[in-house]
């Protein structure tokens, strides 16, 4: 694959899809108690049982004594997983960054940006912030 030219000029070759390695956050609801404690420990300096209760929406599956035992024993961990996604954009923002729509759920649209960053926005914001992108008309080659 060819890297884009550096400098002021635009590269006028045709766009080619490319693989991006993306870091995905495992939802807290999907984590077992020890994994959730590790995530809390990773995110916050002083973690207490109340943080665990809040993360479990008031329904913790372990008591405070077990929480403290696990908190002392377990190392911090963010519990993200990495995944390869074929990036083939069809949307562009006002700054010229390219996006791929991954999925839509309710009023939310999940997006992947050309630099591997995941994000989401509402349908209303999406219609204001993004316009369709046609790779055939692009002056940029996103292959890196």
UniProtKB/TrEMBL annotation:
Protein name (database record): Uncharacterized protein
């Amino acid at each position: 694959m060819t890297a884009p030219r550096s400098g002021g000029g635009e590269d006028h070759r045709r766009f080619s899809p490319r693989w991006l390695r993306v870091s995905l956050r495992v939802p807290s609801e999907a984590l077992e108690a020890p994994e959730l404690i590790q995530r809390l420990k990773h995110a916050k300096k002083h973690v207490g049982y109340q943080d665990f209760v809040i993360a479990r929406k008031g329904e913790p599956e372990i008591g405070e004594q077990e929480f403290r035992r696990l908190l002392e024993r377990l190392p911090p961990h963010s519990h993200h997983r990495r995944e390869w996604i074929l990036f083939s954009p069809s949307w562009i923002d006002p700054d010229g960054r390219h996006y791929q729509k991954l999925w839509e759920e309710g009023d939310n649209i999940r997006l992947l940006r050309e630099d591997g960053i995941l994000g989401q926005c509402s349908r209303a914001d999406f219609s204001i912030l993004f316009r369709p992108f046609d790779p055939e008309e692009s002056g940029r080659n996103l292959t890196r």
